[in-house]
Specification:
Blueprint (H helix, E strand, L loop, with lengths): L1 H10 L2 E11 L2 E10 L8 H6 L4 E10 L2 E10 L3 H13 L7 H4 L5 E6 L4 E2 H7 L7 H7 L7 E2 L4 E6 L1
Antiparallel strand pairs: 1-2, 2-3, 3-4, 5-8, 6-7
């Protein structure tokens, strides 16, 4: 996990401020607070020491068997203290997904349907049994408004399992 932490720090050009071993719901983890390193050519050395970091991050690397999950929260340096509790709470609540309903979820597919008679997009969607709470989403998918008039034979997209 240390190697993954080093790689992440290098990949994102971060300067670690603090790093510690932690446990997240029985999983070993590393918590790192790091600043994004400014390009040396853009700032004078004196300016770097006086200014707050442009970006400060909280990174949790959580190991579950052979898999390492990386969770990253980033904000501007001055705002980091405001967002730190939210970042930390989210990362410390990591758990293994065990809900069979979520694990066995099947993808939805876009189906092309032909409108049988003149109608509005909203009425056509209702005929194709689209739930009311998804009508606006289907209008966006079709690049239309729910009140748009459709003629018989018009092809529309509908999301279904």
């Amino acid at each position: 996990m240390e190697a993954a932490a080093q790689q992440m720090v290098q990949q994102f050009k971060l300067q670690p401020v603090e790093s510690k071993q932690v446990t997240v719901n029985s999983f070993p983890a590393i918590a790192i607070v790091a600043d994004q390193v400014a390009d040396q050519q853009q700032q004078q050395p004196q300016q770097q020491q006086q200014q707050a970091p442009a970006v400060r991050t909280l990174i949790y690397l959580i190991q579950d068997g052979k898999t390492i999950y990386a969770m990253i929260g980033a904000s501007s340096g001055p705002d980091f203290a405001t967002y730190f509790p939210t970042f930390s709470s989210s990362m410390q609540n990591f758990r293994r997904l065990t809900d069979a309903d979520k694990l066995n979820r099947q993808p939805e597919r876009i189906r092309i349907k032909s409108v049988t008679s003149a109608t509005t997009l909203s009425q056509a969607m209702t005929r194709f049994q689209v739930p009311n709470d998804r009508l606006e989403e289907m209008a966006i998918l079709n690049g239309m408004q729910l009140t748009d008039r459709l003629t018989a034979g018009t092809l529309i997209k509908v999301v279904a399992k």
